[in-house]
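Each letter names a residue; structure tokens follow underneath. Both lines appear below:
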Amino acid sequence: MTKNKALNFILIILYLNFTFQFIGLFISENNINNSYYLFLSILSIIAVANLYNAGLHNINYLISLCVLTPVVSVFGYLSYEWFLTTRNLNMYGTFPNVFLPVADFSSNVVRSSGLSRSSTILLIPLFYLILTDKIKFFYLIPYSRLVYLIPYLILSSLIYYCQSRIVILFFVSFSIFSIIYFLWSKTKKYKFQKIFILMILPIIFISSIVVIKEEVHTKSFTNKTAKFFLNKELNFSSPKSEPKGPIVRKLDPNSITSNRFDYWKQIIKQSKKPITGYGPLGDRFLLVNNNSAHNTLIYSYASGGIISSILILILILRYTYLCFFLTFVKKIRLVKKNVFVFSSIFTISFLFIRGIVENSVAVFSIDLLIFLSCITICEKFKNQKLQ
């Protein structure tokens, strides 16, 4: 345990949540191998507590980002390769065939929504590095700023191309709120400069890639230019017969939630163990075709029953309150030394919002690992005096 009483309480809540799921696992016909998720979750909690006691809570967050970076790099590269070499204008159809080159290393390949999620987690600290940076006339001098501006543009493009609605909604809302709230006292010119760098520049970047990609495939602009200047049309061998994909992913006309609401109803209706649940991945045990609950509380209900749902709800309420407290009551200063706590607050917010449509922190995953590192930073910062 740690020296922080509030953090201890939350860690005990998490211990109880994952330990209690052993009961549902053992008294149901769920796969006993799923206990793997519980052991990893408990070990992660122990590791985070030890790192907090050693004063390495910031290092723990950086380690989590370092683990996530190569994952995003590999899957992002494969998605971009598929996107640039086909007529598709988004990355929504990448799973699973696009990721076959890494199938020998891992069968647990990410979907486009997972890549979008991971990109957002990496983007948030970059966003605040840029937001806290001082604006000069030649912003990119010194060129060291490119170290986080270029990754920011690439990650923002992945967020858009992957077409996860909840992630795009969060990204736009989060960007607008951060610029307006934290730059309230700045001049209009300064605000516009930040808006251009953080919001308009990514749109230009995303649009430019689409335009260049289409020109490479169709040579439309080249033909028009040649016809205007040379009065003749050039004949390029381009895959015009291949149909162009939509710039916005196709949605299911019968379900705006991609059948998530039906999954929630099925789990609640089919569960015969409302107190204990069915252990880890209980949602996949209850649903056909190995489907997921796609909701943090519904997953908790399937895996640990009402008790697990209540424990996770306590967790959500605690850090919803703490995020509001640090942002609106403690009013953190917009300086680079506070980038860790800014990133933690809005990463927690993102994971909770994503928890409406995904299992998120309720099961062992990168979401849980990132979440654990972020709550330790917030709990530590809560007790620090502002300078």
